[in-house]
Amino acid sequence: MKIRVRYAKEGRLVALSHLEVMHAVLRSVRRAGLRVAFSQGYHPKPRISFGPALPVGVSSTAEFLDIELVGSHDPTQVGRALASALPEGLTFLDA
Questions:
Q1: What predicted TM-score, i.e. pTM, was given to this entire model?
Q2: Residue 44: exposed, middle, or buried by beta-carbon count in 10 A (0-12, 13-18, 19+)?
């Protein structure tokens, strides 16, 4: 099941690069206990797609990512779990 998440990047976290934001979100997904689907092959990677990179120092309230989860999930519950695990400055907005 794929879920599109809209989040905001604000406050002190505008100083993070796109790669650092990706790592922060991946850690948050792990902390939230979401069962993410993984790619096949020798080095499996979580099936999460991020939108285009935002320049360093710019805040946004319309950043998107797609998460592919194992099984069927309610987007509102996924959003609640992710919102509680995101660091201050990354704010969950919609799923």
A1: 0.84
A2: exposed
Burial 55-65 (b: 16+ CB within 10 A, else e): eeeeeeeebeb
CA distance 1 to 9: 25
Per-residue pLDDT of 39-88, as tens digits, reads 998 999 999 999 898 889 899 988 899 999 998 888 889 888 988 999 88
Nearest to 83 by CA among 3, 2, 8: 8
CA–CA separation, 2 vs 7, rounded Å? 16
